[in-house]
Amino acid sequence: MGGIAGRAIAISWKGNTMSIHSTAIIEDGAIIGEDNVIGPYTYIGSQVVIGDGNHIGPFCTIGQVGQHSSEFYELADNYKHNGVVIGNRNVIREYTSVHYPLSETTVISDDCYIMAYNHISHDTVLKNKVILANNCQIAGYTTIFEGANLGLSAVIHQYSTIGALAMVGAASMISRDIPPFSKCFGNPVASHGLNTVGLVRKGYSKDQIRLITLAYENRQLLHLKEDALLLEKYSEYIQKSRRKRLFELV
Q1: Which of 141, 139, 90, 142 is nearest to 115 (CA)?
Q2: Residue 236 contacts by C-beta under 8 Å, 6 or more apart in sequence?
Q3: What pLDDT shows up at residue 16?
């Protein structure tokens, strides 16, 4: 579906249970699926693709130039990018900003819950079911894998990787890559065991949790090799990791 371009007061669009508030601004070129809610005064840029069944609250900005303090892309005439892609069934609460990429694609996958006042920077990728509590600040080229949970006001350094089902505590400064299944917090960030509560909630078995515990206590990868899913989650993290890791499995 096309957009409603550049008008401070747009015509309300309701169909297929779609609800776009009359004050939202949706630029021409934006592609929006079905069953979405877009709240008051939210801005959707021209190179944004949004899937189905999303709730986007008021005063959100999705699709602005990526910030780069040495390049000043805001002043460039030839700023080209791959846009923002948002999947299905996400909740994006008020005052969240999502920026266009500089070289890759900014992605929010499916079933993510993004609370108020979050910033999702250029080229960041959120995999499925990521949770961001209020006021998380995510720098560019960050990847957050499936089911990870970031606490209130966490700050993520650029080029960071956070593994699947990791739990990051409130007000943490993340300057190292965070392995999957782990629990960490602090400034500087430190490891504090496993995200056992999260693993249980997501349906991981007692045997899987036992293998993860053995792997992390002994810092040995061989324990994860006994379960294909656990090895997959760790392998995807290693393949993407670009910064110094909080700890290593050997």
Answers
A1: 90
A2: 145, 163, 164
A3: 59
CA dist 92 and 249 (Å) reads 35
Rounded Cα–Cα distance for residues 127 and 142 (Å)? 11
Q: Is the pLDDT of residue 161 over 70?
A: yes
Q: How many CB atoms lie within 10 A of CB 77?
A: 4
Which two tokens mark 221? Answer: 């990868």
Tell me which residue has tokens 């993510």: 112
- What pLDDT does 186 receive? 97
Q: Is the bond preceding 188 in cis, omega lying within 30 degrees of 0?
A: yes
> What token pair was written down for 103?
């070289």
Task: Look at the chain and count its residues.
Answer: 250
Instruction: Specify whether the CB–CB gap between 237 and 177 falls below 8 A.
Output: yes
pLDDT for 150 beyond 60? yes
Query: What's the average model confidence in pLDDT over 95-99?
Result: 98
CA distance 127 to 139: 16
Which DSSP symbol is given to 136?
A: -
Q: Which of 221, 213, 222, 177 is nearest to 195 (CA)?
A: 213
Domain coordinates in residue numbering, the chain: 19-195
CA distance 105 to 83: 6
Question: pLDDT of 40-58, one tens digit each?
Answer: 999 999 999 999 999 999 9
The CATH homologous superfamily for domain 19-195 is Hexapeptide repeat proteins (2.160.10.10)
Residue showing tokens 């990728």: 125
